[in-house]
Amino acid sequence: MGLPTVVFSYPHHARYGINAVAGALEAGGGFDPPALRFVRRDADLPGLVRELLGVHGRVVVAFSLLSAHAARATGVVAAIRREAAGGGLLLIAGGPHAGGDPAGTLAIGFDVAVTGEGEEAFPEIVRAWGEGRPLGTVAGLALPGAGASVFSTGRRPPVDLDAFPSFATAHHKLGPIEISRGCPFGCPFCQTAYHLGRRMRHRSVDSVVRHVRLLVCNGVRDVRFITPNAFAYGSADGLRPDPRRIEELLTAVRAELPRPGRIFFGSFPSEVRPDFVTPETVGLVRRHAANTMLVIGAQSGSPAQLEALRRGHTVDDVRRAVRVAVDAGLVPYVDFIFGLPGEREEDLRLTLALARELAAAGAVIHAHPFMPLPGTPWAAEPARPLAPVVRRALSELASRGALHGDWRRKEAEALSLN
Questions:
Q1: Do 53 and 183 fall into the same domain?
Q2: DSSP calls for 201-220
Q3: What per-residue confidence (pLDDT) applies to 1?
């Protein structure tokens, strides 16, 4: 039957995940432009699917779902289904939400939920469906079973990052280079360890250099990285930094990047753990990178909550990290989560006190309401409206220019997941 046309839902918040699976399709061959379509607006998807079905007869539509945005897919999927009443359509969902809640993802109306990483699974799905083979033979999927049941095709082993690109160069879907995946800490609020594994895997320096060359050849001069902890790059266990490996990476990237190209390391879309922030690791940023900020994940100012979160660092580690960053001329952007399960009045008092202390020391506070994410140990814990004392404190910090991010929007997204 041949390969189908593939359409990606491509909103801003999901673009990095889509870039990776689109790159995997390109790498496997048979999907030269314009075989892949990227649609930024949900409203444009149904009409394009109708048009492509009329021309090609078979179309795959793929979404990468983040939990905060999964609900919006329901109406879009229904509209696409109405345009494909004659068949020839396969709807696939991947991403952390599909992995954490495959039954709920299928209930939205998807035909397939990819329950793990997508670089190997997604091309196999597309090729199997295009060739008329049963999808039950593809590992790493959840499929509709009898009645309301879900049929799992089993787990896949973790992918080798070097075997796949971070983006789809032929379709000019470029972006940050993913250099590490997984997290050994397993914080109960975070999907990373549960969706991508507790063992950190790193892309080799040679592979990163090849990505930089592709970016440069396509006119990109700013290089950014995707990683749960930039200062863990190259670490054998992910529990302590290996400055030698970090410097090897940054030196190699700098050598490939013509001036005035810039490296951004430890800033969005990545961050660093406070216990990894040392004069040595920060010194590497100052020598090799262009970012003037460092995103630090503190999450709480309460020792009891840090223990419950299994963070593996202390409140003093947070203070020390901010001091080291400020002394080096970097602005620390410090993440805190409010409304955590089990949060007591004393925990809240300590966290707000630390946030104010760090802001006075030169940090910018990035506030996040707790969000119950599927697939995590705290998935069943409800999100709560932020306490009045928190709302007043965040407004105060914002008035001083010491707060970053739209916490009101995030609060609404968190409450929608209850």
A1: no
A2: EE--HHHHHHHHHHHHHTT-
A3: 61
